[in-house]
Design brief:
- The protein has 362 residues and is mainly α.
- β1 and β2 form a beta hairpin.
- The longest helix is centred in the middle third of the chain and has 38 residues.
Length: 362
Amino acid sequence: MAIDFKETAARHKQYLLTGVSYAVPFIACGGILIAVSLAFAPPGPNGAPDPSGSEILSLIEKIGASAFSLMFPVLGGFIAYAMASRPGLVPGFIGGAIASMPQTLPDGKTANAGFLGAIFAGLLAGHVVNLIKKAPIPVIFKPIMPILIIPIFGALLVGSVMFVVNLPIAKTMVGLGDMLKQMEGQSQYLLAAILGAMIAFDMGGPVNKAAFFFGASMIEQGNFRIMGAVAIAICTPPLGLGLATLLRRKLWNDDQRNAGKAALGMGMIGITEGAIPFAAADPIRVLPCIMAGSITGAVIGMAAQVGDHAPHGGPIVLPVVDNRWWYVFAIVVGTLVTAISINALKAVGQKKENEAQPAPAA
């Protein structure tokens, strides 16, 4: 039987989106709590914010770190859940947890397989569980299959594979980080432009999340500039579209103006999905405009060496950003590029529509 690659790719895309949709609240919760704890923390011996001097701030940081540490198990677990239902949860969670385990590299450094490892674990777990389900099993064992046999054998198989591939994937992640650190001049700007375009392209979808997880993983490698560019790109689509509805209200209907208010709020806390209602209604005009704004902001941030120490974006993480004024400037410029360009395109489109209408009869 021939394999329908297009249909298979679409299904796997949906598996990834399901896993990401469950992981994002953990990322947002952890990132914001860590940002809050660092924002109000006094400087430590090295001059960096140190929450350990305050019991409350230290507690907030620990809670945030706990939420963030669950990102990879949840990502792997719910990718497997989307593929194989509840029996996939245990192998998927365990595979994601193994992906988060630090690995010792040949040079003595430690790193983990990160989001690439968690995605691999989730997909592997889903396929393994589905294969186990198809195995011929005596009727007497069928009642305990989903609660005992599948979780145990699935976890053993997935866990064994993950312990084999964990180190190579971790090396790949470190290699990417080293490559980024070696980039200079125009290469960095090209990288920022690509990440900015990816963030805006599907507004919270798999392309967006690939860029986001990449930036977040670079924080662990000590490279905060990647997340800085990503953090700027995250918020400019909803902020730009929300601003557009305020600048030229007549171009937008009542529903769109209300959506614009919601988009402004979501942009302030770094939720790109606030742009989705606009893109769904008019993708041909909206997508190029929000991508242009995100690219502009990300490139400015990279050029100004903006760094984000929290795995989140938008103005809400300003307290833990390096070169804060440039961060704000990059967001403002990216937002204006989006707002001005979409209003210009809508104005041209409406003018053409008006000209195409027949003149009223005399």
